[in-house]
């Protein structure tokens, strides 16, 4: 398509990345998506300001716990994708909001600000919804979102609730929680206004391009009925589980694992998280432990409130790889099966990254995606502190140990 370009660059500093992007562009990009380690020589604010000042266009992204590109999985680097497109085909506005004592309001505020400049072009929606069934027409809205949330806020569920409420849960979205290379000190989200800590950033996309999202997990629940339980006591927040089946949470977890020490239990977090089934959709969700507390409680990366049913999850190398492959395939299907794919965005949990190291599957994961989308299609992503997105069956949730993929096609919907 004329004037439509997807230009990818990666490097160890923002200057080299910007120079590589500029070489591939013949005009300012509409949007640059950028994911950057907190260990590169540039500050997070410098990453955003350099891209904004030297390339122009909107900027969205965040700090990471690892970077993903067409060349593989990386650490201590920066990866970026510039999308150059006519406004009638692809337009973007980014906004952010601080996350305060009312996270729902923060999410809603970021969405309202991001969509404030979008003009509803209903004639395009009319064209897209011609000769389709009503359900498909509902899914054919020409609006999408990219969402990044402070990965240390502990408030992702509430922020997403505000976003879902402001959009009536009708807008396709993908994204993740920002990381900081496992320092757990401060994460950053990006918008055209800069790099922001303790905030949520939303990129509102208006596009007539085919675009889709896929979400998958690489685990299966235990078939042992003794490895099922219910959360019976929380700590100060729903992310702290004190008791399962009225017993200390770590005691139950160790029993299910068949280990005798807390050290052994800690070592199994990536391979054996908990699973819970969402009652309305009947979809399995991962609930990953973050650490074991001194009183036998377990701190999780997501809310696990009283009454939540839990079981032990397990995986295999094939299941782990297939989750990423199937997420990309689902994104392609939801995009309307474009003949040519412009770019793939991956939001991959840091615990999945650790599991990829354990299984030794990183090269295979990227190779399998390239078989689907082509060797030359840009792939960009990062290791997250949590993933988000929605699909046909999944509302806008905060996920653990999950892969969310967004595919942008090079043809009109």
Keywords:
single chain; 413 residues; alpha+beta; 2 domains; nine-stranded antiparallel beta sheet; six-stranded mixed beta sheet
Question: Could you outline the blueprint of secondary structure elements for this entry?
Answer:
Blueprint: E1 5-11, H1 14-24, E2 31-36, H2 44-55, E3 58-63, E4 67-69, E5 72-74, E6 78-84, E7 90-98, H3 103-114, H4 122-128, H5 134-138, E8 143-149, H6 156-166, E9 172-177, E10 189-191, E11 194-196, E12 199-207, E13 209-216, E14 220-221, E15 228-234, E16 240-244, E17 247-248, H7 249-257, H8 262-266, E18 274-278, E19 283-287, E20 289-292, E21 298-300, E22 309-314, H9 317-335, E23 341-349, H10 350-359, H11 362-373, E24 379-384, E25 387-389, E26 397-399, E27 403-412
Parallel strand pairs: 2-3, 8-9, 23-24
Antiparallel strand pairs: 1-6, 2-6, 3-10, 4-5, 4-24, 7-12, 8-12, 9-25, 10-11, 13-27, 14-22, 15-16, 15-22, 16-17, 16-21, 18-19, 18-22, 20-21, 23-27, 25-26
Helix pairs in contact: 1-2, 3-6, 9-11
Task: Summarize it.
The chain has helices at 14-24, 44-55, 103-114, 122-128, 134-138, 156-166, 249-257, 262-266, 317-335, 350-359, 362-373, and strands spanning 5-11, 31-36, 58-63, 67-69, 72-74, 78-84, 90-98, 143-149, 172-177, 189-191, 194-196, 199-207, 209-216, 220-221, 228-234, 240-244, 247-248, 274-278, 283-287, 289-292, 298-300, 309-314, 341-349, 379-384, 387-389, 397-399, 403-412. It has 413 residues and is an alpha+beta fold.
């Amino acid at each position: 398509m004329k004037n439509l370009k997807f230009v990818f660059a990666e490097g160890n500093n923002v200057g080299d990345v910007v120079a590589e992007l500029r070489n591939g562009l013949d005009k300012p990009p509409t949007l640059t998506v950028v994911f950057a380690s907190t260990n590169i020589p540039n500050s997070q604010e410098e990453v955003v300001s350099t891209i904004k000042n030297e390339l122009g266009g909107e900027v969205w992204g965040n700090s990471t716990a690892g970077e993903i590109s067409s060349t593989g999985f990386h650490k201590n680097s920066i990866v970026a994708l510039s999308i150059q497109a006519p406004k009638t085909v692809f337009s973007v506005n980014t906004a952010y909001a601080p996350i305060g004592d009312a996270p729902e309001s923060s999410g809603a505020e970021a969405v309202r600000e991001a969509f404030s400049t979008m003009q509803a072009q209903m004639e395009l929606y009319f064209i897209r919804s011609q000769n389709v069934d009503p359900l498909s027409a509902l899914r054919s809205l020409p609006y999408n979102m990219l969402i990044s949330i402070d990965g240390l806020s502990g408030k992702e569920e509430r922020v997403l609730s505000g976003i879902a409420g402001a959009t009536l849960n009708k807008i396709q979205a993908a994204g993740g929680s920002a990381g900081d290379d496992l320092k757990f000190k401060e994460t950053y989200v990006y918008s055209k206004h800069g790099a922001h800590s303790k905030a949520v950033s939303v990129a509102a996309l208006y596009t007539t391009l085919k675009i889709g999202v896929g979400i998958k997990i690489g685990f299966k629940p235990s078939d042992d009925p003794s490895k099922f339980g219910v959360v019976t006591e929380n700590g100060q927040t729903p992310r702290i589980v004190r008791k399962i089946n009225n017993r200390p949470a770590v005691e139950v977890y160790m029993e299910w694992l068949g280990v005798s020490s807390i050290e052994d239990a800690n070592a199994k977090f990536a391979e054996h998280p908990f699973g819970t089934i969402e009652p309305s959709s009947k979809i399995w969700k991962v609930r990953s432990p973050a650490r074991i507390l001194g009183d036998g409680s377990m701190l999780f990366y997501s809310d696990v409130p009283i009454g939540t049913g839990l079981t032990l999850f397990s995986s295999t190398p094939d299941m782990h790889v297939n989750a990423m492959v199937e997420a990309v395939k689902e994104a392609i299907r939801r995009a309307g099966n474009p003949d040519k794919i412009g770019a793939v965005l991956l939001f991959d949990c840091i615990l999945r990254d650790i599991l990829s190291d354990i299984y030794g599957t990183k090269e295979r994961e990227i190779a399998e995606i390239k078989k689907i989308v082509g060797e030359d299609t840009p792939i960009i992503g990062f290791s997250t502190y949590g993933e988000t997105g929605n699909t046909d069956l999944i509302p806008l949730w905060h996920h653990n140990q999950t892969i969310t993929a967004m595919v942008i096609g090079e043809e009109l919907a």
